[in-house]
Amino acid sequence: MKELISAEQLDVGIRKMAEQITSMVGDRPLTVIGVLTGSVVLLADLIRQLKMPLRIGFIQATSYRGGVERGELELDVAILPDVVGQEVLLVDDIFDTGHTLDEVQRMIQSMEPRLLHTAVLLHKLGRQEVDIRPDFIAFEIPDEFVVGYGLDYRDQYRNLPYVAVLEEADLESNDPVEPGNAQA
Ligand code: IMP
Ligand code: MG
Each residue of 105-125: pLDDT tens digit? Predict the structure, then answer.
């Protein structure tokens, strides 16, 4: 595993993103929605840099495959707060192909918020398959599989305080990926 973004760099990048969000939202009330599970570390740090009246909620995105491949996506809104007429900031860990954010954004949009913004920690370059782009991006990264600061490989490494590139030796590559659910 190779460190890509240090804890200090994460801190600076998230403060900067919080300033950009503040310039857009001002002191209007904001509903921050985290996409479970990868967004929890970012969400916890980001909201403490925001000063407007704020409430939080979550949406669960589950993909039908663990490991590094993207699977069929299922969204669970059971624990999502009411967003009708609210100004919403949707927060996710990474914008890779963009399908997750695209689908979650459509789902929230269908619930008629007053305004909907999107923020991600990471934007993986050269992978995008959708037309949307997040409104706020803390870091652009090369096309490598990364873990830490909320991001997982088979549900591990989310607790690393930095972002690291997963290397060949870290992959359970000889071990075929079992079909199963993986929390995004
Ligand atoms: P997308 O739908 O392809 O944009 O992928 C978004 C989801 O895939 C994220 O919320 C992550 O759960 C997962 N993902 C994509 N790239 C990585 C990575 O490099 N490390 C860990 N998870 C990733
Ligand atoms: Mg994941």
Answer: 999 999 999 999 999 999 999
Q: How many CB atoms lie within 10 A of CB 167?
A: 11
**Domain of 14, in residue numbers:** 2-144
Is 60 domain-assigned? yes
For residue 98, the 8-state DSSP code is S
b/e sequence 143-155, b meaning 16+ C-beta within 10 Å = eebbbbbbbbbbe
| Closest ligand to Cα 34 | 1
pTM of model > 0.90: yes
Give domain status of residue 160, yes or no: no
Tens of pLDDT, residue by residue over 12-63, are: 999 999 999 999 999 999 999 999 999 999 999 999 999 999 999 999 998 8
Give me the amino acid identity at 69.
Answer: E
Q: How far is the CA of 27 from the centre of ligand 1 (A)?
A: 31
Pocket test for ligand 1, best of 105, 122, 151 (most atoms within 8 A of CB): 151
Q: Is residue 182 part of a domain?
A: no
In a domain, residue 179? The reply is: no
Number of separate domains in the chain: 1
Task: Report the CATH number at residue 139.
Answer: 3.40.50.2020
For residue 182, the ligand 1 atom closest to its alpha carbon is: 12
